Amino acid sequence: MLWLCLVITVTIHAKDHKDVALDRVFNYKKNIQADVNGVTMNAYLRYHFRTDKKNKLLLTVPSMYVLARKTNNEFVGESYSKVTFSDIQEYESTLQVAVGTVPRYKNVMPTMIPFMTPKLYDVTIVGDHLLSPFHPQNEPIYRYGVTYLTDNRVEIVFRPKKYNTQLVSGRAVADATTGRIMHVEFTGEYDMIRFHANVDMGEEGVLSLLPKSSNMEGTFKYLGNKIRGSYLIEYNQDPCLPDSIVNSHDRALMDSLRPLPLPSYLAALYHHSDSIDSLRSLRPKKVRKKNVAKTILWDAVGDNLVNRIKGHFGSNDQGYFRISPILNPLYMGYSERKGVNYKMKLNLNYDFSPTQTLRTTARLGYFFKLHQFYFNIPIRYTYNTEKNGYVEIQVGNGNRITSSSIRQQLMEEFPDMMDWDENNERTDYFKDMYMKVRSNHDITKHWGVALGVTFHRRSAVDKEFFRSINMPDSYHSFAPMFQTKWWPWGDLGPIFTLSYEQGINGIGKANMEYGRAELDASWLRKFYRMRSLSMRFGSGYYLLRGHDAYFLDFENFREDNMPGGWNDDWTGEFQLLHRDMYNTSRYYLRANLTYESPLMLMSRLPIVGKVIEMERIYVSGLVADQLHPYTEWGYGFTNRLFSIGVFMATRNFKYDSIGCQIGLELFRDW
Predict the structure, then answer these.
(1) C-alpha span between 317 and 364 (Å, rounded)
(2) What's the gap between Cα 246 and its chain centre?
(3) How many CB atoms are located within 10 Å of the residue 333 CB?
(4) pTM of the full structure
(5) How far apart are CA 133 and CA 123, in angstroms?
(6) Helix then strand then coil, % of the chain, to nearest 5
(7) Tens of pLDDT along 298-357?
(8) Which of 342, 347, 333 is closest to 665 using CA atoms?
(9) 180-213, pLDDT tens digit by residue?
(10) Strand ranges of the sheet holding 142-148, from the earlier edge strand across to the other edge
C-alpha cells in the first residue's frame, strides 16, 4: 500500500511539472513585456535551389520564371541586409550586398521567407496561417509530450490531434524556469510547399522573441514540376556596413562578410558559373544582330506576365506602384450564373508627407459569359491621416441595369413589337457609367461624416432601337449625398452607417428626381484559433421617387461585378440572386451571416481534411418587392489550389435554385 501511494504521488508531480512547463512557454511573451518595434539587425541570408523535375508549366508560377527559362538545375545566392523590425514579420529591409547565380538576383519562392522569423508565441506562426503550438488558445488541438533534459531545460514534443494543413508537428527545447524557447524545429505544409524548419532563438530580452539563426528546407511540387529549396539566415551579424553601400554585387565583399564557411557543393556552383563567364569572355566576339523582339518578349514581357510589376519612384522613393500579374490564375474565377471571370488590380501610392498621401486602387474585370467589361478607379487624396480626412474621386461602370418604368412605357406604346414576356437585351438593359466625388472627415474617434455628389449616365444597350422609335437612349442623374458613420466600440466593434442621397432634376442633363435613405451595420467578430463571425444587416428605402426616376439603384445593396476571391467578397453578398432583383424594389431589408473556422466539418475527415485550410457556413436573408423572403444557405472551403462555395436559395418559402462559386487561390502570397 505504501509503494502504491508513492507511485501515485510521483505521477501527480510529473503532470504538474508538465503543466507548469507548458504554462511558462505559453505566457513567456506576456511576462517579459517586450516589443520588437525599432529593433535593427544585420542579416546574412544564403539560399540554394535544385530543380528535380521541370516542364513548361513552371512558367506560370510567379517568381519561378527565371528558373523555368534557364537550363541550369541548381542555383545559389547570398545577401547581406540591414533589417529594422516593426513587428516580428513586418520589417523594412535594406539590401546592401547580393551575389549569386540566379539571373538578376531575383527572389525565388518568396513564401519561404516568413519562416525565417516565425511568430512562435502568437496564435499563428506565419501571417494568418499555421496555428502555433505555443499559444494557449491552440492547446486543445495539439498533443504534447514533455521531458526534462536537465533541471533547467525541457523538451516539448508536439503534434496535432487532427492532421491538417493549418497545423504543424515537431519539437522544441525551452528554459524550464522562464519558458523561453531556445530551439525549435517543426514540419508542415504551406502554400504548396512541404517544409522543415530549424530555428535557434535569441537569448534574452526582446531578442528572445526573434531568431538568432534559421534554417529551412522546402519542396515545391506543381503539375509535374519539383523544386527543392533551402534557406539559411544569421541575424545580428557584424560588421555594420555604411549606409552608402546599397545593392552591391561585389563577390569579394560578400566573402569578407560571410559568417559561416561556404559548403563545398555551393562553392562549386559559384565556380561553375564563373567558368562559364570566363569562357564566354574568351570567345571571339561576333557581331550579331540583336533580336529586339525576342529580348522584349522573353525578358521584359514574359517575366511580367506571371510576376507582379512593382517598384518605387520619387526622389526619396516616396511613391510605390504594384500591378497584378497579367496571366496569374489567381485572378480568375467562376460562378454558375456569370461564368468565367478575369480581373486585374493596380495599386499606386505617393506620400507627400507623413499625414498626406495620394492613393489609387484600380480594378478591372471581364465576364466572358456576359460579354461585359467592368472597371472601378478610385483616386483618394488624404490630407489628414489622424482624422481620416480625404477627398476621393471614383470613376467606373456598374452592372447593366433595368427599368420597369421604361419597359412599361414601351409595352403600352408598342404592344405588338415583340414578345414582352421575355427579357430582351435591346429594351431592358442599360449601361451604367458613374462618377462619385466625396469628402470624409472623422469628427471624433468614434464618429465620422462624409459629403459628396454622384453622377450617373445610363445609356441603352441598343441605342439605335430607341432612336428609331423617338425615345431617349440615355438618362442622367445628379445627386448630392450625406453619410455618417459611428463605431462606438472602436475597430473591434460593429460599424453603423446612415446615408441619404437626393437626386435633383434640371442640373446639367439630369432628368431624375428621387430621395433614397440607407442604414447599414457590419461587424467582423474574431474568436480564438482563427475563427470569426461576419455579420451584416441593412435596409434601404426610396422615400421620394418622381415620375421620371426610371432607375432604382441602391448603394449598399448591389451585385459585386468584380468579385475578389475568398478573402474579399464571399461574405456579406448574395451569390445566387438574379441581378434584376437589385433594381426592381423601392425597399430592401437584408441580413448576412458567415461563420469561418479552420477546423470545422470536412477538415476532420481522414484524407480530404489534411488539405482543407478554412471552412465557412453562409446564411443570408432578404425581404424586398416580390421577395417575401429570399434566403441563401451555403457551405464553402478553401485550400492551396482553389476556393469553392455551394449555395442553395429559396424564394417565398419555395426552392429557387442551387449554384456554386469557384475561385483559384494559386500563388496568392507569391
Answers:
(1) 27
(2) 30
(3) 25
(4) 0.78
(5) 8
(6) 20, 45, 35
(7) 444 555 555 566 677 777 778 887 776 665 555 667 666 677 777 778 888 998 888 899
(8) 333
(9) 999 999 999 887 789 999 999 998 888 999 999 9
(10) 90-100, 74-87, 40-53, 225-234, 211-222, 193-201, 181-190, 169-175, 153-160, 142-148
